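Lab channel / #folding
Pinned by the channel admin:
"Please post every new chain as: sequence first, then the structure tokens as a reply. Keep commentary short and put observations after the output so the thread stays searchable."

First post following the new format, from NK:
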Amino acid sequence: MNAELNMLNEFLDQYRAVLVAKATGLSDEQSRSHAVEPSNLSILGLLRHMAEVERHWFRRILLNESELPDFFAADGVAIGTADGDFEFPEAATLSEGIEVLQHAIAESRSAIEGKVPEDVSLATRTKTGAPVSLRWILIHMIEEYARHCGHADFLRERLDGKKGDLL
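Reply from TO:
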């Protein structure tokens, strides 16, 4: 694998591990908690959101799989809205959130096999219409995870006082 691709994947994998670590050891009730009101952020919502983000950038954009359904479309929540990923049914569980995120990560890893950072997606960015390279997607994903791992830091500390990247 290309040295740059290795480095970007190492950073991305570190943030993926941090988000899962922030969720590990919580109860389902804690994972659903909106511990920093009035925000609707929750650990479970972050896991579900990042599963959709993984699928969006690596499958829909990089591989141009436009007909790919959302993981949680059957939940009947407002997918595609600003807060849709953070709304979920009472039956949603932390273990399901982690499992779906891990599945999405595996799909993402498969999507980039044999590619180099300069490879350009077949699809274009929805907002700008510009094509994007694998490099851009990986850097964007690192930024997205970093932001949400910061959210998870505050949520976890508020829920049980635990701090640190890999609790």
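NK: The chain is about 55% helix and 5% strand.
TO: also worth noting, The two ends are 30 Å apart (CA to CA).
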